[in-house]
Design goal:
Chain lengths: ~150, ~200
């Protein structure tokens, strides 16, 4: 019985381990003013070194801005009054296949795309309330008007 | 009475829908010249229409019930509109290439200098991460080269830890034979392709 529960525990640990380490998709490198990461009901401080995950929403205040480097070397910054949801992110560091879908509900972004966008057209997509932006390996800016 | 209430309800829904349409804020996109001198492209889609931005400072405004408007903006205008946002972009990753003495995991003398630069870069970056990426030439199968390239990256990681880079700050990857410096036919022995690349970001 004891053996069984130990085996079960080990099995659960095995299942849990790779998931938790694979969940981090990027790290905060720059932060100014009021910025936080909304993860479900949790409100996490976006300090330098904080890690972001799929389904996180990055929120900046009227004096806030934040810069995040993703695991595929995508660089992204959000200006004041931004709400950015990281909807989908996968990256295979061997093949460079992946997907990066983010939704900017308000505010502004600067993006230097990384390895995901280079590997396939439309692997990286930014959504705004009015439009869909397909990224073909590039540096660009986005603003949702009247909300910044 | 009942009918009037229904009609009022329907109008209310219509009004809410109209308000939702009218309040969808337009989006402005600006393509920047790439730092490597190469400008990429962004495809802007709004409902059924799309436009492609592919020249430096090309800008599109979409949404608000209007067709997509394209124009060319300028660096000063971008600075005015996006200055704060651009100022928070993380520093660009730096790249180093390490070579090995043939058939060993000992660094060449030149590579020792590269490693010193890696350490200096790590020390000055906020929340620095070190990405160690192994590459192989095309001798052997793709599958074996995937394994070999990852082994090479892990060896370098093991060499970096005693030099003072915390283990949790280092990630490894193996690209196999997918990214040669010198493109060759299959099964060609090419020392320039047997290397490890380090990104500090």
């Amino acid at each position: 019985m004891k053996f069984l529960s130990v085996t079960l525990l080990a099995f659960v640990a095995l299942l849990a381990a790779p998931v938790s380490s694979a969940e981090d998709i990027g790290q905060v490198k720059v932060t100014a003013g009021a910025v936080h990461i909304q993860r479900g009901a949790e409100r996490l401080p976006a300090t330098v070194g904080a890690r972001v995950r799929v389904s996180d929403t990055v929120v900046t205040g009227s004096d806030g801005s934040v810069g995040i480097t993703f695991t595929d070397n995508t660089l992204l910054s959000a200006g004041p009054n931004s709400v950015l949801m990281l909807e989908r992110y996968t990256f295979n560091s061997t093949t460079h296949d992946g997907k990066f879908h983010a939704r900017l509900n308000r505010g502004s972004l600067a993006i230097v795309s990384g390895k995901i966008a280079k590997q396939a057209p439309d692997a990286m997509v930014i959504k705004t309330p009015s439009s869909l932006l397909g990224v073909r390996g590039t540096e660009f800016l986005v603003k949702v008007e009247g909300t910044e | 009475m009942m009918r009037r209430a229904l009609r009022a309800g329907a109008c209310g829904i219509m009004l809410a829908l109209l308000a939702a349409c009218a309040s969808t804020p337009p989006t402005t996109v600006v393509l920047l010249p790439g730092q490597s001198g190469k400008t990429g492209a962004v495809v802007v889609r709004d409902g059924g229409t799309e436009t492609v931005l592919s020249t430096p400072y090309a800008s599109a405004r979409s949404g608000g019930g209007q067709p997509i408007e394209q124009r060319t903006t300028s660096e000063p205008e971008v600075e005015k509109q996006f200055g704060e946002t651009l100022a928070s972009l993380p520093p660009r990753p730096t790249k180093y290439t390490l070579y090995f003495l043939s058939g060993t995991d000992k660094f060449t003398n030149e590579t020792k200098k590269e490693v010193q630069q890696v350490l200096a870069e790590v020390a000055q970056r906020p929340a620095a991460e070190v990405v160690v990426i192994g590459h192989t030439d095309r001798v052997g199968s793709e599958h074996d080269n995937d394994k070999l390239s990852l082994q090479r990256a892990r060896r370098v990681k093991a060499l970096l830890i005693p030099l003072g880079i915390p283990e949790e700050r280092i990630v490894t990857a193996g690209r196999g034979e997918r990214e040669p410096i010198v493109p060759t036919a299959d099964n060609v022995d090419e020392p320039k392709n047997r290397r490890v690349e380090i990104n500090v970001r």
